[in-house]
Predict the structure.
Amino acid sequence: MEVTKALAALQPLYGKDNVEITTTDGQRVRGIVRSMKTTQALTTPSVKIECPNGEIIKIAFPTIAEIKDLNPSEKTVAGSGG
């Protein structure tokens, strides 16, 4: 995934729980988006995900294949209460 696309997809998810990232090698990481490094010179932009067990996993933007927000929708259904 391009860095700009990954950044655009991750920015609204920053700090949210229940985000899943699939990498190009098939690894799936699910947790909270904790940190996004995009401005340091000579480094690959990356995101850090905190897993439910407390482990922090760093994923480089170029290795991201897919980003999913698995949080339930905050929309409410109108007319569903008597």
In short: DSSP finds one helix and five strands in the chain. The CA atoms of residues 12 and 27 lie 22 Å apart. Strands lie at 19-23, 28-37, 46-50, 56-60, 64-69.
